[in-house]
Amino acid sequence: MIRSFSAFWHSDFGWKFRHSPTAILSALVTLLLVGAAIAAPLIAPFDPFNSASLNLMNGFSAPMTPNAFTGQVFLLGADDQGRDVFSTILYGLRVSLFVGVSAVLFAMVLGVTLGLIAGYVGGRVDGFIMRVADIQLTFPAILVAMLIFGIAKGIIAPQYRDQMAIWVLIIAIGLSDWVPFARVVRGATMVEKNRDYVQAARLIGRKPVAIMVLHILPNVLNPILVIATISLALAIIAEATLSFLGVGAPPTQPSLGTLIRIGQTFLFSGEWWILLFPAATLLALALAVNSLGDWLRDALNPRLK
What we know:
The chain crosses the membrane at residues 97-121, 133-152, 164-185, 209-238, 272-296. This protein is mainly alpha-helical. The protein has helices at residues 2-9, 12-18, 21-38, 40-43, 85-121, 123-137, 141-155, 161-175, 179-192, 196-203, 208-216, 221-244, 256-265, 273-299. It has one domain: MetI-like (MetI-like fold), CATH 1.10.3720.10. The radius of gyration is 23 Å and the shape is elongated.
């Protein structure tokens, strides 16, 4: 592992990373937030979703100010239920990251698979897949996600909706975000399938599936990585938007979007911290991941070398 890191650090890619303050700052912020989410049970002062530990008398406690009734001090204040805002952010960050990463992985697998098939097979198969992609692009991704989420929740029995809400959210966001992967992979596949190494693989009897997976796919990974990084920021924002609108993560598993929805209810009554800190965390995460994706796109672009 040390050798791999050393090889990366002294490579051309590592040199570009070391000389880009934006990339370094974005990577540090992303690692900090991801690490905080993973270690939430260890570093969170309270378990915000354990109802037995909540005290309603702590409700609306201002940041770093002793509560008038209990005298307890909360770093970032407490919400209307007396939950520590810092702890709710850490646990909400876990949900947002889990949904975002899972949705992007689902969209990537689906989009890359369809893109490889469309680019390699061509003909009517290519035309059908691309027409479906074109139709989906005419609708905003958030509306597609809301439609899929609504249909799925209508199919699921009411007693299982809260349990399945996170998985339905992942599928909804993933199905709304596969098109960029498919279009890019299709274009790259149409170029790569005419290369000599693909022709050689055909001559030795390689099956089409093996050629697509073992020969073409490794040569189209760079744009996939860039799209995945940028899509992660968009998926996190989409999840927050759906949760803010009340059609995302359930109250029992609140994400950053759910926390922002709760906070905006009390914004104009003076409890600004309930909204500000979750919103700032979401902004920092989305901006850091998006900036990292933009840098990757430039660093992996051969025209800019």
